[in-house]
Amino acid sequence: MARRRREPETDTELLEYITPDGEDAGAEEPQGRKARRAAKKAANQAAEDERDAIPKAKGRFGVRSMGIAYEAFQSLRGRSMRTWMTAIGIALGIAATVATVGLSSTSAAAIAERFDATEATQVTVSFSDTMRDAGYGPTLEAAQRVREINGVADAGIVCGSTDDLAASRTEAGDYVREVPVFGMEPGAMAAYGFEFTQGAAFDEGHVARGDQVAVIDESAARDLGYTSLEGGPMIYVDGREYALIGVYQAPEGEAKLTGAVVVPPTPCIEADPEYAAGQVFIRTDLGAADKVADTAPTAVFPEGPDNLSVSKPSDLRSFRKGVENEMQALLLGLAAVSLVIGAVSVSNTALVSVMERRSEIGLRRAVGAARRAVAMQFVWESTLIGLIGGLVGTVLGVNVTAFVSLYRDWQIVFDPALFAAGPVIGAVVGIVAGVYPAWRASRIPPAVTLRT
User: Fold this and answer.
1) At 441, is the secondary structure helix, strand, or coil?
2) Where are the alpha helices (DSSP H) in 175-311?
3) CA-based nearest residue to 189, from 157, 167, 164, 219
4) Is the Cβ–Cβ distance between 235 and 214 less than 8 Å?
């Protein structure tokens, strides 16, 4: 009695019943293992040829690239809150990057500008200690010749005491304080940028007459108990009496003048051994420092200009570039961390989305969507999220740069290429973050998904 054949229950068992010609093999089953293998191979090839013969719906959304992009966009619209929350992670990273580059360039320019306004316009022509010991020092006529050089804004003689000297309000030596003392011409005070809170500086007339007058820094005035210049107070410096005619605020960046007493330049001219060798301090117009540095020694000491030392500002181009590189290296590290955090956020969100949409993916696969189309949709979704984050982050970064620059009164220095670089970086981060979730989505088998 012939045994009744069992009906096929799985796709694999069904393929064993299909011959290359599509006929039922139940009537004449191939005999032998090799024959069965050959029949199965032929059936598999026939099934594959049949799938390949199905026309590709090139005109439908979900297959063409633009169609896939459109479906990705529609999918994101359906989850707008999650999309925006994910995009914020990338936006913060892009904003940090854009703001870092913008602020580093702006601050470097501001520092260089500040350097221009101070060090870049300062030239100092100095006598040596040997020349001082030999009795040589700058003269008033030499300082006048320097002021007549083209490009010189202000100039004057200056020298400082080698040690702090005793200063007192009374001849008897009450309220004594040790203070640095400087001999200085009025032109040197103008070159340093002295600002007076009480009284005024002594002038060329005081210097020409040899008047015993002095001005004092406001911190030293508080220490010595000078609250007002009314009544013509006196100050005694190293036993010498001076009329105190002004209280000044130490110029910015000149710490040596803080807490000091300034007297006429007599010690500098006379090469007083208690004072350092005399100098001519020069403030130049912007860009004239090199020319003035070449000319000033001859004006100060025509008998031997090579014996003088000249101090002039360094090259600002290397200075500015160094500041900019240091700041960018420091801040871009923080921006990179923000971008990595944003990329991980996008990847996690996309992976969760794949798990939640298994049925949707299985349905698309069952109706003919290729793995590539499914993967491309998820890549497009993460790319669009990255692009949105890049656009928002660029706007935030530019506004942060502008706000800080306005608050600090800096001139904004911003590379226009950053406007395009921000969205591009965001899109690239989105692509990288979406590769693995897209691969996972493309590997979901349709039959398993449909059964769940």
Assistant:
1) helix
2) 186-192, 204-209, 218-224, 266-269, 289-300
3) 157
4) yes
User: Helix, strand, coil: what percent of the chain each, to 5?
Assistant: 55, 15, 30
Neighbouring CB atoms inside 10 A of 96's CB total 23
Q: Given CA atoms 330, 335, 337, 338 in this order, what sign does their dihedral have?
A: positive
Q: Give the CB-side neighbour count of residue 176, counting CA atoms within 13 A.
A: 11
Distances (CA, A) of 194 to 88, 258, 299: 51, 11, 25
Per DSSP bridges, beta strands 122-126 and 152-160 are unpaired
- Residue from 182, 196, 206 nearest 246 by CA: 196
Task: State how far the Cα of 88 lies from the Cα of 73, in Å rounded to an integer.
Answer: 17
Token pair for residue 104?
């580093």
The rounded distance, in Å, linking the Cα atoms of 63 and 70 is 11
Question: Residue 430 and residue 87: Cα distance in Å, rounded?
Answer: 9
**Do 313 and 82 form a contact (C-beta atoms < 8 A)?**
no
Give how far Cα 276 sits from Cα of 123, 161, 220, Å.
Answer: 18, 6, 21
DSSP 350-419: HHHHHHHTHHHHHHHHHTT--HHHHHHHHHHHHHHHHHHHHHHHHHHHHHHHHHHHHHHTPPP---THHH
- The residues near 422 (Cβ < 8 Å, ≥ 6 apart) are 94, 97, 98, 390, 391, 393, 394, 397
Q: For each successive 10 residues of the chain (452 residues), what is the average pLDDT?
A: 52 48 46 73 65 47 57 63 71 78 74 62 92 92 94 94 92 85 95 93 92 94 90 91 94 88 94 93 88 93 92 67 68 70 73 72 70 78 82 86 83 77 82 79 65 54
Report CA torsion sign: 196, 199, 204, 206.
negative
Q: CA–CA separation, 437 vs 37, rounded Å?
A: 37
CA distance 148 to 290: 16
Q: What is the rounded CA–CA span in Å between residue 75 and residue 410?
A: 44
Q: Identity (one letter) of the amino acid at 451? A: R
DSSP state of 5: P
* Tokens 């998904």, located at residue: 449
Spatial CA neighbour of 373 closest among 7, 48, 62, 32: 62
| Residues in CB range of 328: below 8 A, 6 or more apart | 100, 101, 104
Among 426, 140, 116, 390, smallest CA distance to 264 is for 140
